[in-house]
Amino acid sequence: MTTSDLSKIFECAAGIQLGRVNNIELILLKGHLLLEVAMNNAISKFSKRKVVKCKDLSFSKKLKVLESLQPYIHSDLKQALLHLEQLNRLRNRLAHEFMFDGGPEDLGRWSEAVLKDFPGTKVCRHTFRTKIIQAIGALGSVVVDPKSEL
Length: 150
Fold this sequence. Notes:
Distance between the termini: 17 Å
Order of helices and strands: HHHHHH
Number of domains: 1
Number of strands: 0
Helix content: 55-70%
Strand content: under 5%
Shape: globular
Low-confidence stretches: none
Structural class: mainly alpha
Oligomer: single chain
């Protein structure tokens, strides 16, 4: 699998931006925002008429837009959408539950699953925190510049 320059830049930028953050919950929130930027780019790539105004859509609606493109998207993006949906559920739990019980453990399992599907580029020693950051970067690199099945 060849990786585009945009994908490499996204993965590196995610690592730099999130690498400065120590709080796991803040990494989840900021990572969610970074992945939303990647989704915006993917939607604009596939949206031929540019009718979709990404900034007016929620993360969940953007997922639905990308899922609606199923016949045209590469299997890597199909798998990435499942990981994005899981991450969105975690982010929603953090935002709406007073006690985010089990969240860090769930986020750790999420990052393991992402890295199993999309290993990304390992640039430092793996810790719980750096695995989450690497998973966000690796997932974003798949989403930001998706391949078409056409």
